[in-house]
Write a structure and sequence with these properties.
heterodimer; A: nine-stranded mixed β-sheet; 9 helices; 27% strand; B: 528 residues; 19 helices; 13% strand
Chain lengths: 289, 528
């Protein structure tokens, strides 16, 4: 099955322990044994240590599904078929694709780089649904799968609420901007990070604060990768008001998964407009009765 | 200077695409081969693959498919765990399929002699596949213990479901997952009978089902079975590993065969893509018919500029090449180096015919780029000094405008001295492109010249030409006026097209005219 026919879902978030894997387990509950599911992880595995290993949560994989783990995690499972071994040493072992003959709980692993992720998703056949337990940093990997969708998981408490608000508003703004896929090849072929032609600025690399100083006579900005916008919401909003901003690839937001700690729904919701709130999915394990 | 950099070998490398980890490693470490036998073997193997590609395309595609699936094995490291077993199995399976697909006659040309039948059958006891599963056929006890685990798991699920239904009945809470979060205010006393209760935050608690001792005992029992199962699995893996260790020397030889085939396939693909030909390495002279400097040809083609291939036979050891700016001297040097390098890397070459001899080394005198801080001249001389220390080898030496940064009088004296020295040696094949005048004709030396700028054609074309051309349009214009043909001149021919070239490239007309006047005055003075 080609990449385009696989439904790829990323579960991502910028905070550690914000509940990504817990949410993945919640999502997986609704899939049956006969569904062709492949689960993998991407991101932080390269910065591995014992503490990280012990804190990495288990994912529930049903009999016959496929998952990507690491050879160092294989001691927790039995009776499985090895489908592939990726020969990049990570965490002192190799990323291994297995299919268990029973329902199991296992730690997922990253195959390596985003490119490795793309290759392994392309390579694994007979899969309809791909779930990627995402990185804690950015949503970079989403951009390499143009048709993917993602859930963004937030852990919200009083210390993080302003940061969460900023991130949600920035993502909302990005997801509503116009897409210019027609210039993708041109932008990809650029050697430099920034290219200015007439009144249009093409940005291939990171869009950080330093580039704001260079846009005096610019009317249009075409940004290759929305994941490389390193501005806060207010900076980006001002930019969008001043010039026409376009992206190459769409940002297919599904839901913001909100795990509230010590904050009431009302306190959180009142900060957002109704159309943004529609995307909120509060802690799915919460029972309000 | 790095020889690959000089002839832009990266263009070839980027189109030379081995499929296995061994081929990919070979690609990163191309070495100059000076053994005729080894080179002829490589050319023969490329021909074998080209023949297969042409006459048996289905088999050829199958071979490529299996090559792509060959994993990396370090033959000096023994297999040690289940992932190694998977990798060895995958290697052996694909090796066997390639050998079968090629057939006895062709596979033996690449050294596919190892017989893996016994271990192949052993590893594929459940049916042939590239995956690995610890089959119950390796140990019948596995079947028994796996059944026990399956039965007890069903029982645990039944009991858990019964308990979760009871919770729903008694508390109204439906647990679809492992836990629930409820508000403190909704917490009821009877929850303690069914849940472990933990703090979630200041307003909520976490509820986890409190399973009965019966369920916990069943879970413990299952853990015991799983331990037993894992113990048997571990014994099976050890047994397989011991068997695999008997094949380590086979594996090592098989890697050599796989690498040979992979390189031949990549070479054949390259040859097909760019219509390359097999070089002849038994010649005394270097003979080139329709030689092409590929990266330039591709670049020109993109800009719709015609490329002129190189046709020439170099009959002397010392070749002095002169000609106009942009007349193609450097391209001649690069073409010679590229063809020679490809031939001695065991590749087919970008020429309709290329006959040559083998060199122990190819050297480009260009100045050592690593020597930061030295002047260009000092760097060039240092490079030459280092080269001259090891001059005993049979070597092809290339120099593009040696000593161009010093005054022409001293530069030509130095070059004359070097040519004089080289002309007395039989082991040096020297190509020098230069603008310098007063180069003497020593023994075994040929003067060659690019035909260069066609002034008549230029004068005819320039009248009607738009003066606001961009760079590529100007280059295209020069191309139309330039004859990129190398000819033998028998003497040190003077060339003077630089001013016209500068004019086409857009130099200010006032400067052009002034320079022309000065040049003509100097010429008249020199006659007097």
């Amino acid at each position: 099955m080609s990449l385009s026919k696989k439904k790829i879902v990323f579960i991502t978030g910028f905070q550690k322990n914000c509940g990504k894997t817990t949410f993945l387990n919640y999502l997986l509950k609704s899939y049956r044994e006969k569904d062709k599911v492949f689960c993998t992880s991407i991101g932080v595995d390269s910065v591995f240590d014992d503490i990280y290993l012990k804190s990495k949560p288990f994912v529930e994989i049903k009999k016959g599904w496929i998952c990507l783990t690491n050879s160092v995690f294989l001691n927790s499972v039995y009776d499985y078929e090895i489908k592939e071994v990726i020969q990049n040493s990570i965490m002192g072992g190799y990323p291994v694709v297995i299919s268990p003959k029973n329902d199991i709980k296992i730690r997922l692993s990253s195959p390596g780089s985003n490119q490795d992720l793309k290759e392994i998703i392309e390579k694994i056949r007979d899969v309809e649904y791909v779930f990627v337990d995402g990185s804690v940093d950015r949503i970079t990997q989403v951009s390499i799968f143009p048709n993917s969708e993602f859930y963004y998981v937030f852990k919200v408490d009083y210390s993080s609420i302003d940061l969460v608000w900023d991130r949600i508003m920035l993502l909302e703004l990005i997801s509503r901007l116009k897409i210019k896929e027609s210039e993708y090849d041109f932008l990809s072929s650029l050697k430099d990070d920034v290219f200015i032609y007439s009144k249009t600025m093409y940005i291939k690399g990171a869009f950080s604060e330093s580039k704001l100083e260079r846009i005096k006579d610019i009317k249009n900005i075409v940004i290759m990768d929305f994941t490389k916008v390193f501005l806060n919401y207010r900076q980006f909003k001002k930019l969008v008001e001043d010039v026409n901003v376009y992206f190459m690839l769409p940002l297919n937001l599904n839901k913001y998964v909100i795990n509230l700690y010590d904050i009431s729904f009302n306190d959180f919701e009142k900060r957002f407009q109704v159309d943004v709130r529609k995307r909120f999915l509060y802690n799915p394990y919460y029972v309000n009765s | 200077m790095n020889i690959e950099k000089f002839c832009e070998f990266d263009f070839i490398k980027n189109n030379f695409l081995p499929l296995t980890p061994y081929g990919k490693s070979y690609k990163e470490n191309f070495k100059l081969i000076n053994s005729k036998t080894k080179l002829l073997e490589k050319y023969d193997l490329t021909d074998v693959v080209l023949d297969l590609k042409k006459n048996k395309p289905f088999k050829y595609d199958k071979v490529k498919y299996h090559l792509k699936n060959i994993p990396y094995i370090n033959p000096s490291k023994e297999p040690s765990d289940i992932t190694d077993v998977f990798i060895y199995k995958k290697f052996i399976n694909n090796y066997v399929f390639i050998k079968e697909t090629l057939g006895k006659k062709i596979s033996e040309k690449f050294g596919f002699k190892q017989d893996y039948k016994e271990i192949f059958d052993f590893l594929n006891c459940d049916g042939v596949s590239d995956t690995f599963y610890i089959s119950e056929k390796y140990n019948p006890q596995l079947a028994e213990v796996r059944k026990k685990i399956s039965d007890i798991s069903k029982k645990i699920d039944e009991k858990k479901n019964e308990f979760l239904n009871l919770i729903k009945e008694k508390t109204g809470l439906e647990i679809k997952n492992e836990f629930l979060v409820v508000d403190n205010e909704n917490l009821k006393n009877e929850f303690q009978n069914y849940f472990f209760i933990d703090v979630y935050d200041s307003k909520r608690v976490l509820l986890k089902p409190k399973y009965s001792n019966e369920i916990i005992d069943l879970i413990r029992k299952r853990e015991e079975y799983i331990s037993e199962e894992k113990k048997i699995e571990s014994e099976v893996v050890s047994k397989i590993i011991e068997k695999l260790k008997n094949y380590l020397s086979f594996i090592s030889d098989s890697i050599t065969s796989i690498e040979k085939l992979d390189i031949a396939v990549a070479s054949a693909e390259l040859a097909s893509k760019f219509i390359l030909t097999r070089p002849d390495i038994n010649s005394k002279n270097i003979y080139i018919k329709k030689g092409v400097f590929l990266s330039l040809k591709e670049e020109l083609s993109k800009n719709k500029i015609e490329y002129t291939p190189l046709d020439f036979e170099f009959t002397k050891n010392i070749n002095i090449i002169k000609g106009s700016n942009m007349g193609g001297k450097t391209v001649v040097l690069k073409t010679v180096v590229l063809l020679q390098l490809m031939a001695q890397y065991g590749l087919f070459v970008c020429a309709e015919k290329f006959s040559t001899r083998l060199f122990d080394d190819i050297y480009v005198l260009f100045g050592d780029e690593e020597l930061k801080g030295l002047s260009s001249f000092a760097s060039e001389i240092y490079d030459f000094v280092e080269f001259y220390k090891n001059i005993s080898k049979n070597v092809l030496v290339i120099s593009d405008e040696f000593a161009k940064t010093t005054n022409s009088f001293e530069a030509s004296s130095l070059i004359n001295a070097i040519i004089s020295d080289f002309s007395e040696r039989k082991n040096i094949y020297f190509f020098l492109a230069t603008h310098l005048e007063n180069i003497s004709k020593f023994k075994n030396t040929d003067f060659l010249c690019m035909m260069g700028f066609d002034k008549k054609r230029y004068e005819k074309l320039i009248e009607n030409e738009d003066k606001n051309l961009n760079l590529w349009e100007r280059i295209r214009f020069i191309n139309r006026c330039m004859i990129y043909k190398l000819v033998r001149t028998n003497d040190d021919k003077k060339t003077s097209d630089a001013l016209e070239i500068a004019r086409i490239l857009g130099i200010d007309e006032k400067i052009y005219k002034k320079a022309k006047d000065i040049m003509e005055a100097n010429y008249e003075n020199s006659k007097n």
